Amino acid sequence: MLQYQEMLRRILETGQRKGDPHGVGNIAVCGHHMRFDVSDRFPLITTRSLAKSFKAAVVELLWYLSGESRVDFLHKHGVHLWDQWATPEICAQYGLEPGDLGRIYGPQWIRWRTSSGGEINQIKNVIADLKRFPDSRRHVVTAWNPQDVDGVFVAPCHCFFKFFHAQGKLSLHLFQRSADAPVGVPFDIAEYAMFLRMVAQVVGMEVGEFVYDTSDTHIYLNQIEQTRELLTREPRPLPRIEINPDVKDIFAFRPEDFALLDYDPHPAMKIPVAT
């Protein structure tokens, strides 16, 4: 994935020094654009192994689709990505029970609260609209709710996406307000590319492109050494994924419905996560 290498190189070469909520310090660029053909190969980086993270990406995506805010579903499947932000101390700051992350991705996707006291299932609606009028320009889902962002510790980073249909092919365009390039971006690319494949299967369309725009695109200062090491590694051929073709309901997918194939990455690398 040369595009990803180019992103890292651009930040290192042109990024500006900034502060951040974590007090770590970072270098960042404003705005970066990438696009990936997802019709055949799967855009999972090969410059460091994310084989163990593939299952976590699947489980996290299914957690979003469940509409839940607690980490119980993640723990049931052995995933602990969010534990550091679901501690009793952090949750108490927002009036939440331990293990509850508040109204982040799942609740906003599946249970968006209306002014009249109702709820909107954005995913259900966008699936129905894709089937009814594929060429509509309204196939939009947002996780950014100004009413809720101050009530959570981690406000949604990948916060707005839109489906695009043309000539039988479905593409997905994601806008991300904040992007941790060494750690988060590879995970987000894989997750949304997989989500595109799932939705295309459910609505009966061919798979097109995943188009990805990040706004505050950064590398933390304690990640620079590892980032430079990543740039010395030559990207290898991309893997493939298989998704159970019998699943036709976006809410019926299970972790065992996904398989990563032909993945031959460089060795895994530990990169710090800003907390």
Q: What is the topology, as strand order, of the major beta sheet?
A: 1-2-8-7-6-5
How much helical structure, as a percent, in the residues? 25-40%
The structural class is alpha+beta
Strand content: 15-25%
Q: What is the H level of CATH, i.e. the homologous superfamily of the domain at 2-15 and 30-52 and 117-261? A: Thymidylate synthase/dCMP hydroxymethylase domain
According to CATH, the fold-level topology of the domain at 2-15 and 30-52 and 117-261 is: Thymidylate Synthase, Chain A
Compute the separation of the termini in Å.
27 Å
One letter per element, helices H and strands E, the order comes to: HEEHHHHEEHEEEHEHEE
Number of strands: 10
Helix count?
8
Question: Under the CATH scheme, which architecture of the domain at 2-15 and 30-52 and 117-261 would be assigned?
Answer: 2-Layer Sandwich
In CATH's first tier, which class of the domain at 2-15 and 30-52 and 117-261 applies? Alpha Beta
The low-confidence parts are none
C-alpha Rg (nearest Å): 18 Å
Shape: globular
Please describe what this structure looks like.
The structure is a single chain. This protein starts with a helix and ends in a 14-residue tail after the last strand. It has helices at residues 2-14, 51-66, 72-76, 88-93, 105-110, 122-132, 184-203, 224-231; strands spanning 16-18, 26-37, 112-113, 119-120, 140-142, 158-166, 169-180, 206-220, 240-243, 258-261. The strands form three sheets. The chain has a six-stranded mixed β-sheet with strand order 1-2-8-7-6-5. Strands 3-4 form a two-stranded antiparallel sheet. The protein contains eight helices and ten strands. 31% of the residues lie in helices and 24% in strands. It is globular. A hairpin with a 7-residue loop joins strand 1 (16-18) and strand 2 (26-37). It has a domain at 2-15 and 30-52 and 117-261: Thymidylate synthase/dCMP hydroxymethylase domain (Thymidylate Synthase, Chain A, 2-Layer Sandwich), CATH 3.30.572.10. Helix 2 packs across helix 7. The mean pLDDT is 96. It is an alpha+beta fold.
